[in-house]
Design goal:
It contains no helices and seven strands. It has strands at residues 2-12, 16-20, 26-30, 36-41, 45-48, 59-66, 73-82. The chain has a five-stranded mixed β-barrel with strand order 1-2-3-7-6.
Length: 102
């Protein structure tokens, strides 16, 4: 079963990530040697990355296969790391800035 999830990285382990989805579900994302990791850099666009480049708090999109008989575990085929705060993924809402008075 092919799965796509988005969320915030809560832990980086030797060969896996723990990712919290917007609905509060914690996924274990297994990272293998053939997992393609791409990181968005504002000045360079998408660049190749490694598991070591991913940090707690990063926002990620994961595409992979559900691991049979292991609930909430995904064997990652692709991981996209996006910069910035994960507004909308964690349920966090941006603080509105006051409008200038006329």
């Amino acid at each position: 079963l092919n799965l796509n999830i988005s969320g915030v990285v809560k832990a980086v382990e030797e060969s896996a990530l723990r990712v919290l989805s917007p609905k509060g579900q914690l996924f274990q994302v297994l990272v293998k040697g053939d997992t393609k990791i791409r990181i968005w850099q504002k000045d360079q666009g998408l660049i190749k990355g490694k598991l070591e480049d991913i940090k707690v708090g990063d926002r990620v999109h994961v595409n992979g296969l559900a691991v049979k008989d292991e609930e909430a575990t995904i064997s990652a085929q692709r991981i996209l790391v996006l910069p910035g705060r994960a507004v909308g993924i964690t349920g966090e809402r941006p603080t509105p800035s006051p409008l200038p008075s006329p």
